[in-house]
Amino acid sequence: MSNVSIKLANLSKAYKVRPKRDRGFLSGKLLDLLRPASGQHGEDLVWALRDLSLELKHGELVGFIGPNGAGKSTLLKILARITKPTSGIGYVNGRIGSLLEVGTGFHPELTGRENIFLNGSILGMTRKEINSKLEEIIDFSGVEHQMDTPVKFFSTGQYTRLGFAVAAHLESEILIVDEVLAVGDAEFQSKCLNKMLLLTGEGRTILFVSHQLDMVLKVCTKAVWLNGGRIIGTAEPKTIVSKYEHWVNSSDKMLPVV
Amino acid sequence: MKADSKPTRREEMTHSSGKGEQQQPWIKLEQLLENSPDIGATNRQNARKYRTISPARQSLQAEVSEIWDYRELVQNLAWRDLTTRYRQTALGISWALIQPLLLMIVACACFGRMMHNSASDVPYPVFVYAGLLPWQYFSSAVTRASNSVLSVGGLMKKVYFPRVIAPIASVIPPLVDLFVAFILVLGLMVLYHVPFQAHMLFAPLFVVLASELALGLGLWAAALHVKYRDICHIVPFFLQLAMFASPVFYSTNAIPERLRSFYFLNPLFGIIDGFRWSITGTGIPDSRSIMVSIVVATILLVTGGAYFKFTEDQFADYV
């Protein structure tokens, strides 16, 4: 069996940033036509990711840390195929399930049970798969008594519970967990962390974005520090977290060599 | 426009527009696989499990087979639309029936006397109602399809699925409305002693043509809507004009002979005339108008699909 689950080579992502014009779209375009030069020079590129190379193996629980705007979410979005890279290449071995935000794909008017099916199919599960795991999902979510209530009456925490429950039972080889567990209570958080450990034990890869460094320390087998679209370091969580903390608290903000 | 209220506008860059400085030395996929032979061997046969990430577009074939893989999502999105639309409504699905019925009554009150002779050999209420069915389907399908991408925008920023699923799924729920409203036309025909005929079996063909046309237009509108919010002003206005340009309230006979070929340029002519003919047996549709419908619907579907595919990479950044 192959061991590598994700491999990226020189991956970059750029966004065009245009200075604001106080005109509507059409008049802006017309102005560009009149002054073609300004249209070209007015554009700036912002590199959300730059020359990123990374190799992850099956069964790894990888924590991504870094300040806001470091490119963590952009990287995960590219992996989940939500947006495309500007250049570079990579491949992903297996299905990707993403849990990017509270109740992704829930419809407020539908009941909890109906949303499990809807959300499951959005994540790429078949009806059969969901049926076979329905009991497990409901059980894991811990909101079984509310299964026939529209989710608009759920609390934020209950929303998250259900969302994580569905995503965690997706038979994807790779699971993306982006800063969502913070909403759940302590009991649910530890339940999720345990589930994550269980899944990686089965050989799944989990990509975990969190600003809670203690969580990264607790569960991750590997940590990646991103800053300004580049990887500063990839190593043991202990090493990375301590260097990162040191950098956050330092006054000169000089990036270390990891 | 919303995007203008922010100080900057973000726009996705395609690889081809990269400037000299940013060009990366291209790594071939094969090269990448060679470096880790264990992956190459197992996964080249297992294309479904294994995905490449690159700025390149998917091939059309891959795209089509992927849509097929996601057919359950199409079903589920359509089903979600249907169930949630009538939830928390007092009258439920009967809304699908009330709207064309009220429109028919209004039309009879306004034009009934005027159209009495020119309309056709069937009573005007049956005539109008049978024309309203495909029209209502078309207009509701186009409206939904044009909003479809924006309405799943939140989802699109978080999960991957073939974007084209959204407009496809949005032309299905109005079919159910059409089916419900269709039951009443049978009642009206009994009431007005209009005979049932075998050519009723042609009706689904015209419905298919209507959904093809709606999807074609919808794909254009949905893709344009992401970038140009003008679409939400254009579509309702366009539909209003189209209703008067189509034979919903009047029959082809009411149009002077020399102007007919001009009217037939409207692809809805063949569809509405054809549907009404197949149900009520009145006004055999002109073959020219049906040809126009087929050709225009196909052209719109192909070009709309191409434009959608061409722009979809930017959707997640614009929504």
Keywords, separated by commas or semicolons:
heterodimer, A: 258 residues, alpha/beta, three-stranded antiparallel β-sheet, B: 319 residues, mainly alpha, 2 strands, disordered N terminus
The Rg value of chain A, from CA coordinates, equals 21 Å
- The helix content of chain A, as a percent range, equals 25-40%
Q: Oligomeric form of this entry?
A: heterodimer
Q: How many distinct helices of chain A?
A: 9
Which percent bin holds the helix content of chain B?
55-70%
Individual helix count of chain B: 15
Overall form of chain B:
globular
For the record, the count of structural domains of chain B works out to 1
Largest sheet of chain A: 6 strands, mixed
Structural class of chain A: alpha/beta
Strand content of chain A: 25-35%
Kindly provide the radius of gyration of chain B, computed on alpha-carbon positions and rounded to a whole number of angstroms.
Answer: 24 Å
Largest interface, Cβ cutoff 8 Å: A-B, 60 and 57 residues
State the total count of DSSP E strands of chain A.
9
Q: Can you give a write-up of this model?
A:
The complex is a heterodimer of chains A (258) and B (319). Chain A is an alpha/beta fold and 258 residues long. Chain A is 38% helix and 26% strand. Chain B contains 15 helices and two strands. Chain B has helices at 29-35, 37-43, 60-69, 71-85, 95-115, 124-151, 153-156, 165-170, 173-191, 203-227, 231-245, 257-263, 267-280, 287-311, 315-318; strands at 8-12, 50-53. The chains are: A alpha/beta (258), B mainly alpha (319). At the A-B interface, strand 1, helix 3, strand 4 and helix 4 of A face strand 1, helix 1, helix 2, strand 2 and helix 4 of B. Strand 4 of chain A pairs antiparallel with strand 2 of chain B, so a sheet runs across the interface.
